[in-house]
């Protein structure tokens, strides 16, 4: 075995090991079919991305496929808007499914399965109220007690179940339960619900049904109907596995198997659709695609690339224990990707005017500046050099400390891709604030053709004051002030960061004028920025994707 092969073998995650074992044993003829089963009750988030990369990635690696299955058994919270957004996001992440399925496609089949269990004496209609059922359920250490309806005849159960379907009974008045084991230490096996009555309109089946299958009765059976070989879900479903197997065994259907891995949790955010929906509905964010949201659509709008999200999911691996992943790892991944692909541009956000006194008033001199040093083939763009320029306020100090290599009276700096300038005069207003600085440029010092022989230590970004275009820049900080808002006392929303958005104006070099929504740039010395769809012909809007360095870790003293 070569070192490469060894490495490869070592890096198998535990699910890949299971799949490889199955293939070796010829299980299902070596076939691998996974599924990604979102409930269409919200937009996908980065946790779902982990599940998508795992399910689709696994199938791809082993020559199989993946079904996209909408787990739409809960009509009250589901919507087509969510279905459409989910399909869009999965494709955007770079994956395609073999078949698009809906659990609701199987309502007839599931109903038939239920009647088969009734006929086998393995399911019964219970007329007890929810409270009565809960009271008889027992505790993990104390067995449950049978409901008075547990030993109904098959005929009576079939009749009642059919009438449940026909809408003869009120919501909450009856349920269909599996007859398993009231003494089981696994509470999920103590005669779990299979069907409940719900007079709700379903986004696909309309008003055809007034009984809906529970997750546990729908999921495994849907897997079996589709002949899914590896049904991968998150750890909270471990106690459901026995029930998953029980239904499959007693229905004698395709033996799909469930495997569990740890949910992805990220610092400084929340990762549940229910909570994210609250943020949207209560106006804490502008929508599901607010760039502060951990949703795929929010990350996309923020400037994240599919590659960066896939790399992130790869890097965190597949864990067997719940953990909290540092947001800065996600940021590292997008920085790494954009460093390769994003064109460089100059933007000044806190302008200080520089007047180049020895440069002609009306002259506009083009300076060539490289688009991307990581991709020399992308060539140069032109930056206009003029008599009046902007640099950042923080790049000038009137009384600098030692080793301050930026602009200061008497000091020289290089303007990136242009000339070396020297500061000769500081112009102040009546209150003593610096209004502008006067400099001279060194004529033979132009970048690329520098014959000045001067050595300067500081290089600044700059724009032409007359040629620059004002743009809006939306800068984002963590959505929450604490690492794990869900584990704090009280309402998670009490921990929102009130300063998660700040809007500033930037002065951008004219090459940015043609930028289109979705384009990403590195603003030199600042970070990565993506054009927001809110941009108009008159005004470009940029979202700061991420800074150049991990400032947060520094601030937190990490
Ligand atoms: P939420 O609590 O956010 O609604 P969910 O698990 O109810 O999450 P589903 O739409 O039911 O959301 O999930 C679809 C698939 O994505 C499931 O297989 C689920 O296990 C997986 N998934 C959801 N959240 C995460 C996460 N944070 N990490 C990894 N996988 C996840
Ligand atoms: Mg769910």
UniProtKB/TrEMBL annotation:
Record motif 'HIGH' region, residues: 38-48
Motif placement: 'KMSKS' region: 270-274
State the Gene Ontology BP annotations: glutaminyl-tRNA aminoacylation; glutamyl-tRNA aminoacylation
The segment(s) forming the Glutamyl/glutaminyl-tRNA synthetase class Ib catalytic domain are 32-339
Cellular component GO terms, alphabetically?
cytosol
The UniProt record lists the EC number as 6.1.1.18
Against InterPro entries, the record matches this protein to: aa-tRNA-synth_I_CS, Gln-tRNA-synth, Gln/Glu-tRNA_Ligase, Gln_tRNA_ligase_bac, Glu/Gln-tRNA-synth, Glu/Gln-tRNA-synth_Ib_cat-dom, Glu/Gln-tRNA-synth_Ib_codon-bd, Rbsml_bL25/Gln-tRNA_synth_N
Q: Which reaction does it catalyse?
A: tRNA(Gln) + L-glutamine + ATP = L-glutaminyl-tRNA(Gln) + AMP + diphosphate
Q: What is this protein called?
A: Glutamine--tRNA ligase
Encoding gene (name): glnS
